[in-house]
Write a structure and sequence with these properties.
The chain is α/β, with parallel strands linked by helices and 311 residues long. 16% of the residues lie in helices and 26% in strands. It is globular.
């Protein structure tokens, strides 16, 4: 059997599961809010052209308006001034859009401190337990923040001192950019940097260092709880916007089913488009451990907000 035939067979038998890491795109999808005089992106919107009516009797279609950096999205190197001479989003090699991923879970720390910052030592300790970060892959930073992604205020978590969301320290951002083997950083928050990163020295170190080094960002991911620490494969699909700085992005993960056969947790016959919830993450009411795509389970020990119910 060819590798691709084997892959398709594995997906159909649920030996390989497909996990959707993407937030739904809707008018209430949270967007970043920069203070004046800085300009902001627009929220996502549908503009109906026709819906089986005299504007188009047999068809329904919409125009859309969106920012490049709205919802789950991809940051290209040219997004930041440090990467201004590097790739735009259409120039990212397609071979980099399918890559292995490590998932570093700091949900408990972020629940205790919304300004929690990942340090180099945290990554080193994680590597001691889980093996090295994947060469040519993603570091996916789980913080439980996806549980807030259905509500703009909870998601941005802003006070009079600005937004308070977890992120990466200046030192760790520089290390990820210059020394770690990863091609990029994926997060559950509105951007790759911490909420307070506007006042770091230098400010916005993830954007500055990673994009400046030609690496990438993925933001507003959800369902990272359904991924193993090592071994997932991420398929990221930004639109090839010519000259674009980023793009809304469908992000999927392929994961091996647990040992003992497919559906060991969720049971056999999990329908396409749904996925298992890890133990301890079952939604109230007991749906047999299965949640529909687009309805993230509560954020582990975060417990700060109900799952997003957008659109
Ligand atoms: Mn962005």
């Amino acid at each position: 059997m060819s590798v691709l035939n084997a892959l398709i067979a594995a997906i159909r038998s649920a030996a390989v599961e497909v996990i959707d890491l993407t937030a739904p795109l809707a008018a209430d999808t949270p967007v970043i809010a920069l203070p004046p005089p800085l300009r902001n992106t627009v929220p996502f919107a549908l503009h109906e052209i026709s819906r089986y009516d005299d504007r188009g009797p047999a068809w329904y279609w919409n125009d859309i308006s969106t920012g490049e950096h709205t919802g789950t999205h991809f940051d290209a190197p040219v997004h930041w001034v440090t990467g201004r001479d590097r790739e735009d989003v259409a120039q990212v090699p397609v071979t980099k859009l399918i890559a292995p991923a490590a998932v570093l879970d700091f949900t408990a720390q972020a629940a205790a401190d919304p300004d929690f910052l990942l340090e180099i030592d945290h990554v080193r300790q994680w590597e001691d337990a889980n093996g090295p970060l994947p060469d040519g892959g993603w570091l996916l930073y789980r913080t439980g923040w996806d549980a807030r992604s259905g509500d703009q205020d909870l998601f941005l978590n802003a006070s009079e001192t600005g937004p308070h969301t977890p992120g990466i320290s200046v030192e760790c951002a520089g290390w990820l950019a210059r020394e770690a083997p990863v091609i990029g950083l994926g997060v559950e928050t509105v951007g790759t940097d911490a909420g307070a990163a506007h006042s770091f020295d230098p400010p916005f170190p993830c954007h500055s260092a990673l994009l400046g080094a030609g690496k990438y960002g993925l933001t507003q991911l959800r369902n990272l709880a359904a991924l193993p620490a090592q071994g997932a494969v991420v398929i990221a699909g930004p639109l090839p916007i010519t000259g674009g700085s980023g793009s809304p992005c469908r992000v999927l993960a392929l994961v091996d089913a647990p040992p003992g056969g497919s559906g060991a947790i969720g049971g056999p016959g999990v329908p396409p488009g749904e996925h298992r919830v890890p133990p301890g993450h079952a939604p109230p009411g007991g749906s047999g451990g299965v949640v529909p795509t687009g309805h993230a389970p509560p954020g582990g020990s975060g417990g700060v907000a109900p799952p997003g119910q957008q659109g």
